[in-house]
Amino acid sequence: MKKGLILALVLAIVAGGSLWAEQPKAPEPLMGPGDLALSVGLGYGFFWGAIDVSGGAEFILGKFVIADFFPLTYGAAVKASYYSWNGGFGSDYVDTYLGGGAFATLHLGFKDLDLPSGFYYLNNVDTYIGLGAGFFSYTWGLTTSRSTEFRIGLRTTGGASYFFTPNFALTAEYGYYGYYNTGLIGILFKL
Fold it and tell me: What is the average pLDDT across 16-24?
């Protein structure tokens, strides 16, 4: 009986030791806690003759997992957009817009999901949404009769980034800053 008790004790210790063994480490998210990212982009107006640029910065604050398989990271961001269009061909009609805001952001990187092997190319994709408060200032009209609006309110942003390296990505983003919305293609650098 002593031999059986000793054998059971040894088996319990060996089995219990496997509980404390180092578990495989989950992959680091594309946008993980502590990451600081800077982005710049050209908006869709740029491609038909307007000056349309956007930029921003984001800091990732933390990470959580829903239902043990849906990892999300969250952060805080500031973004701004500037747009200016002249009617062209001697016209004195001008649209000028400046908007921006501070956002709470939420990221889902496909790298963190257990995707089937045929979808390996999605491992470099990070998607995000943001909600926050901001402002816009919009001026439009002819030189002789221009109007200007300034408002503060709810702002949204969202998009996807494709990471070519751990610190460099190509981005496609949509943002609503009040009166004006912007779609852009740009680049992102993680510092």
Answer: 45
Evaluate if residue 52 carries a pLDDT over 90: no
180 three-class SS = coil
Strand-strand pairing, 181-190 and 168-176:
antiparallel
Q: What does the angle CA 94 – CA 97 – CA 100 come to, to the nearest 5 degrees?
A: 175
- In this structure, are residues 107 and 32 in contact, taking their beta carbons and an 8 Å threshold? no
pLDDT band for position 115 (50/70/90)? confident
Structure tokens that stand for 153 in this block? 């309110």
Separation of CA 171 from chain center: 9
What does the buried/exposed string (b/e) look like for 84-93 if buried means 16 or more CB atoms within 10 Å of the residue's CB?
ebeeeeeeee
Q: Which residue has the tokens 């805080």?
A: 76
The DSSP call for residue 2 is H
Q: How many residues does the chain have?
A: 191
Q: How many Cα atoms occupy the beta-carbon half-sphere of 11 within 13 Å?
A: 6
